[in-house]
Write a structure and sequence with these properties.
With 221 residues, the chain is α/β, with parallel strands linked by helices. The chain contains ten helices and five strands. Strands 2-1-3-4-5 form a five-stranded mixed sheet. The mean pLDDT is 94.
């Protein structure tokens, strides 16, 4: 039986590098976690949350699933969100998608892949909601990029509409929801300008984010 020894070797080397910089790092980390950020991202192995924002273990609370969906029936995601907001008191929730997302492309093509088809239905709903936008886009890659972006904006809206975030805002907790997207080709994050810190920002801010997104832009990745 193969035991993946090389991964244990990598772990020891990584831990040694951390201790070299800060001998007390793991001791301090084991005592508590106090991140300011919750990251809701895609499960894609090419999008390592901590690394692309340059944060160490303990600085970013993370939830990942296929195509960074926030579904109101997903108790896993909602449990993470509640713990982050109510217990850890994070100040920022970041929904981060990425260009070239396989789940987004599969949803766009309406591929039949099995159980995951039910999950990708959430993405197809986003596509249907913005169907008029996609009629004007000829190339599949461009349609996929646009769906990646629109999906982030819609998932930000879903986060804002949860009772968890609504209750936090009602008690005037300092909490902002953000929508970002990551470019696999250059490693850069892009702000989609859909950040909300209170209920009355959502309606106008959502429309402004959509309007800005649909303006012609170059070099999105």
């Amino acid at each position: 039986m193969k035991k993946l020894i090389h991964l244990f070797d990598n772990n020891r080397a990584w831990a040694a590098q951390i201790r070299e910089r800060d001998p007390e790092f793991f001791l301090k980390l084991s005592r508590q976690q106090s991140p300011e950020y919750l990251w809701i991202g895609c499960s894609d192995s090419r999008v390592p949350a901590n690394e692309i924002v340059g944060l160490l273990p303990g600085e970013l609370f993370v939830h990942r699933n296929v195509a960074n969906v926030v579904a109101h029936a997903d108790l896993n995601c909602l449990s993470v969100l509640q713990f982050a907001v109510d217990a850890l008191k994070v100040k920022h929730v970041i929904v981060c998608g990425h260009y070239g997302c396989g789940g987004i492309r599969a949803a766009l093509r309406k591929e039949r892949l099995g159980l995951i088809d039910n999950w990708l239905r959430y993405i197809q709903d986003v596509h249907s909601k913005h169907e008029q936008v996609f009629r004007a886009i000829a190339e599949e890659d461009d349609r996929c990029d646009r769906l990646c972006e629109l999906n982030v904006i819609e998932q930000v809206l879903n986060v804002c509409q949860t009772s968890i975030v609504q209750d936090a805002w009602l008690r005037e907790q300092n909490l902002t929801i953000h929508g970002w997207i990551y470019g696999l080709r250059n490693g850069h994050l892009r702000d989609l300008h859909c950040s909300f810190s209170q209920q009355d920002e959502i309606s106008g801010g959502y429309q402004e984010a959509l309007a800005e997104l649909l303006q012609p832009k170059e070099n999105l990745e």
